[in-house]
Design a protein that fits this description.
Distance between the termini: 74 Å
Order of helices and strands: HHHEHEEHEEHHEHE
Number of strands: 7
Strand order of the largest sheet: 2-4-5-7-6
Helix content: 55-70%
Shape: elongated
Strand content: 5-15%
Radius of gyration: 25 Å
């Protein structure tokens, strides 16, 4: 009996060891596939980014040329055509910048995964940055009412932040606000300060997101079921959260207000805080 028990124990140990070896091999295979996927994403993103800079540059040159020609035109019809061309080139620039942000999102996922994500801090006026970005987005969302509630122009709110990354944060939040709300609704960006922090919120009048979904929102490549009819990568909020946390701040989804649940009013608000 003793010999049989020892033999049975050895067989059990060997079976467990075989399972460990199999799981280890499968884990190594998954890690290799993940590395290859990240390398592929980075390669595609680099290839997509290459033509974007000349597109933006040439569109900006064309905008300046059209703007200069407007002053020399006499006829009303000529001015009308110039205004239409100027509007079209502005849309090209705005859309190219939007695509550039999406491409940069793909690159940033690779940087975050590999621990190579960094900030380039400098003095930055968050109020001026926000107003400028909202103006850039107006041609992309002509049927949305974009409002900025902030200290008056000339009253800066300056911190030691990465201005490029904060443009990315606001761009992602505003893109989502536009994408997930109907035309002829209002998107409000609000900026206010307390003793040690600046607070920025982006509110739309789309469908409210349940608080129970908040943790899933900030995971990479995750999109909520009620948003499957909208196109998107599922990366924006994950990267936005990573950027804010790298600054020592916090990004959160505000819970639906009592009005939203009782009166049927809709709305989603994301808020982030940055230390001053």
């Amino acid at each position: 009996m003793k010999v049989q028990r020892e033999q049975s124990s050895q067989e059990t140990i060997q079976a467990l060891q075989n399972q460990v070896d199999q799981l280890t091999a499968e884990n190594m295979l998954l890690q290799d596939q993940l590395t290859r996927k990240e390398q592929f994403i980075a390669m595609i993103a680099h290839e997509l980014r290459s033509p974007l800079s000349p597109i933006i540059n040439y569109a900006q040159m064309l905008t300046r040329q059209i703007g200069g020609a407007q002053g020399n035109q006499q006829g009303q019809e000529d001015n009308k055509r110039s205004r239409a061309m100027l509007h079209n080139t502005t849309i090209i620039i705005s859309q190219a910048r939007r695509l550039s942000r999406l491409v940069n999102d793909l690159l940033d996922v690779s940087r975050i995964s590999s621990g190579q994500f960094t900030l380039l801090r400098e003095d930055c006026d968050i109020v001026a940055l926000t107003r400028e970005l909202v103006e850039q987005l107006r041609p992309v969302a002509p049927y949305h009412n974009l409002i900025v509630q902030a200290p008056e122009p000339g009253t800066p709110t300056i911190g030691h932040w990465d201005s490029g990354r904060l443009q990315q944060v606001l761009g992602n939040l505003l893109d989502n606000a536009i994408k997930y709300s109907d035309e002829h609704t209002t998107i409000t960006t609000r900026i206010w300060t307390t003793a040690e922090s600046v607070h920025i919120s982006v509110h739309n009048e789309g469908v409210s997101i349940p608080s129970s979904d908040a943790s899933s929102l900030f995971k990479p490549f995750v999109r909520l079921a009620n948003g499957t009819h909208r196109q998107g990568s599922g990366l924006g909020l994950y990267i936005t959260k990573s950027i804010i946390e790298a600054h020592g701040g916090v990004l959160r989804l505000e819970p639906p207000t009592q009005e939203s649940t009782d009166d049927g009013l809709k709305g989603t608000t994301f808020t982030f805080d940055l230390p001053l």
